[in-house]
Amino acid sequence: MSTVDLEPAAIGDQADDEDLRRARTDRLMRKARWILPLGFLALALGGWELVCVLNEIPHYILPAPSRVIWTLFAEWQLLFQALLNTLKIMALSLLLAVVGGVGLAVIFSQSRVIEMSLFPFAVILQVTPIVAIFPLINIYVEDHTSKLLLCAWIVAFFPILANTTLGLNSVDQNLRDLFKMNGASRWQTLRRLELPAAMPYFLGGLRIAGGLALIGAVVAEFVAGSSGLSSGLASQIVESGYRLKIPRLFAALVLISFTGIVIYFTLSLISHLALRKWHESALGRER
């Protein structure tokens, strides 16, 4: 057999080896994406625990991680009730932001005049700090829950409005012309072309708005200074700081951070499930 006859087989073997190496590298990177952060977190917590134990730092100054975890379980009923109150404000504000943001974005897509007239006010509302707006809300809104809900809604509203508007305005003009040539009405064009095309943009804005709604709810509680049975995690943090119950303060912070992570991954999963069968951003992950 000649050398020329062996070359195709050798090239094929090299390609197979390259594919195997690439597959192993991909598997290693997927594992490292979880192992490295978790390993670094364990190292940081271990160092924190060691510093507190060796220096005998009082728990009312800097509690050790073990003390924070013990407090989280010992006072779980109180913290869990506060978490539910914060989540209620967050969920309602996010729901209102979705309804209002998508509805207004659809109106903007149908009327350029309305978009040019109202969109600047949405930008102004977004860039104004909520702590500067809250005194006015405190004057004109009597119900305490409504105050918190309005503050969280203001923070979460703009990402959904801006992303959905961008998605509706980014539809290929050739496709618009094709729908028009086939006699499609504005409602049919919106329902069958513009809304599906804007779905990835909306879901991207939803992921951002989910975290911002939680931040807005927590900041609103800080500013409002609520207390009692209807208080949320932010109020528990403030109260724990005043009473020098620092382990409870850290436990509430852990709950807020963990809740934010769960919200982000939940919304990311919803986005993936909604797009995985037809959009390139989700199809690329499964290849």
Structure report:
With 287 residues, the protein is an all-alpha fold. It folds into two domains: 1-56; 65-286, MetI-like (MetI-like fold), CATH 1.10.3720.10. It contains eleven helices and no strands. It has helices at 3-54, 65-74, 76-110, 112-127, 130-140, 144-169, 173-181, 186-224, 233-242, 246-275, 280-286. Helix 6 (144-169) packs antiparallel against helix 8. The longest helix has 52 residues, at 3-54. It starts with a helix and ends with a helix. The relative contact order is 0.11.
Q: End-to-end span in angstroms?
A: 39 Å
What is the highest CATH level, the class of the largest domain? Mainly Alpha
Q: Specify the helix fraction band.
A: over 70%
Level-2 CATH architecture of the largest domain: Orthogonal Bundle
Examine the coordinates and then state which fold CATH places here, giving the name of the CATH topology of the largest domain. Answer: MetI-like fold
Q: Which regions are unreliable across 5 or more consecutive residues at pLDDT < 50?
A: none
Quantity of strands, as a count: 0
CATH superfamily of the largest domain: MetI-like
Average residue-wise pLDDT: 84
Question: SSE order, as H and E?
Answer: HHHHHHHHHHH
Characterize the biggest β-sheet.
none
Overall tally of structural domains: 2
